[in-house]
Description:
Layout: E1 5-9, E2 14-15, E3 18-19, E4 23-27, E5 44-50, E6 53-58, E7 62-63, E8 66-67, E9 71-75, E10 90-98, E11 101-108
Antiparallel strand pairs: 1-4, 2-3, 5-6, 6-9, 7-8, 10-11
Amino acid sequence: xxxxxxxxxxxxxxxxxxxxxxxxxxxxxxxxxxxxxxxxxxxxxxxxxxxxxxxxxxxxxxxxxxxxxxxxxxxxxxxxxxxxxxxxxxxxxxxxxxxxxxxxxxxxxxx
Length: 111
């Protein structure tokens, strides 16, 4: 959650009546999906907000309009992928962020 927005990841193709593939932003008051739409091409398992960035981990190979191998940093404003691209070699299922460092866990053997 960031401000009045709840971020959700998973294995879904719609939220309410809107198409949202694997990731969505929801208004915390109404529960309705916002216009924010990074459009992941596979499941998003983990999310963490740090500053103005949402970090996502999962099984996806594209998100936020860019190719990203299972880890991505997305603008909270636009939903577009940033230049951050660690390129994980396997599923990312857990994320944490502290002190400018992003920690990732999952079934991968390298970044």
